[in-house]
Amino acid sequence: MFGSTVKGGPSEGGTRYWLLLDSSGRQIIVGQVAEDAAVSGDGAPVLIAGRYDASPRSVDDGDKVTLALTAAGGVLVQATGQAAEDAAVAGNPVLIAGRYDSSPRTLDDGDVGAIALDLAGYVLAARGGISVSQTPTVTAGIYAANDAVGGLLTFANAARITGKGGRIKSLVILDDAGQDAEIELWLFNATFTAMADNDPWAPSEADLRKLVAIITSGGGAWFAAGTPSAARVEVSQRYDLVGTSLFGQLVTRGTPTFAATDDVTVILGLETD
To answer: CA 178, 181, 182, 184 torsion: positive or negative?
Structure first.
């Protein structure tokens, strides 16, 4: 970097100030260089001011003007490029750059960071993982095969935005009575007419159109824990919701006998969009 000095600027207390310029006559400004450093202290980024005008300004050739801002304070950018989204790229569209990192970055509160990209150049979107637990009221007694176990289950916040969804990642079923019967969790993208507890499982055709997953504890998924037992099933099932909740009901294919009305708990692991 080349430097020179030029007289100018205000004087205070008899002190004369100089501007440091490069070889092209541009002012040299020292700012923050570390992308993941806090925005404070010495060497902080230089704040460049602009101006908002309710009506567009008229500027002549060679005029010196401030940066134009939107009403929200964003920089007003005029881009010349192809207007049709599905047409070939032409003109001078504005390209917004990001950065790919082979290892995840760690940013602190208030840090400046580049847009994160994956290996293919797509913007990385954050996903949220949640676990939702439900304990239906079951019969303290015996069930017949193919009966509903408990009533309607609601897994709230299965989508962060109405009409969006996610992916089911796991199901854990806890059986305090240690019956180890085959139990299925039927999941729907909207509320449905659930069966009464201990009644035969027979959803309507209309409700079956809302079905997004059936997860079973069959196949040796049960593990003893003293008297209680637990089943864990790994899942990778996409779902899209009408609202923000998943709805479900348990169905048994065996004949379990539960000792208390809170003997069964289901924990659903979800990855939301």
So the answer is: negative
| pLDDT for res 261 | 98
Instruction: For residues 76 and 70, give the distance between their C-alpha atoms in angstroms, rounded to a whole number.
Output: 6
Q: Give the Cα separation of 156 and 159 in Å (integer).
A: 8
Residue 64 pLDDT: 77
pLDDT, one tens digit per residue, over 160-172 is 889 999 999 999 9
- Looking at 5-14, 25-34, 262-271, which range is the least confident one? 5-14
Model confidence pLDDT, tens digit, residues 57-89: 788 887 877 777 777 777 776 655 545 555 565
**Residue ranges of domains in the chain, CATH in brackets:** 1-29 (no CATH), 128-272 (2.60.120)
Q: Is the model's pTM score more than 0.70?
A: no
Measure the CA–CA gap between 21 and 5, rounded to whole angstroms.
Answer: 6
pLDDT band at 114 (very low <50, low <70, confident <90, very high): confident
Residue 150 vs residues 24, 140, 252: alpha-carbon distances, Å: 78, 11, 10
The Cα–Cα gap between 217 and 179 comes to: 12
Separation of CA 170 from chain center: 18
- How many angstroms separate the CA atoms of 270 and 212, rounded? 13
Q: DSSP class of residue 87? A: S
Q: Which of 81, 76, 122 minimizes the C-alpha distance to 98?
A: 122
Give 86's contacts (C-beta < 8 A, 6+ positions apart). Answer: none
Long-range contacts made by residues 34-41, C-beta under 8 angstroms, separation at least 24? Answer: 35/111, 35/112, 35/113, 35/114, 36/105, 36/106, 36/107, 36/108, 36/111, 36/112, 36/113, 37/111, 37/112, 38/108, 38/109, 38/110, 38/111, 39/110, 39/111, 39/112, 40/110
CA distances from residue 158 to 28, 155, 233, 264 in whole angstroms, order as listed = 52, 6, 18, 21
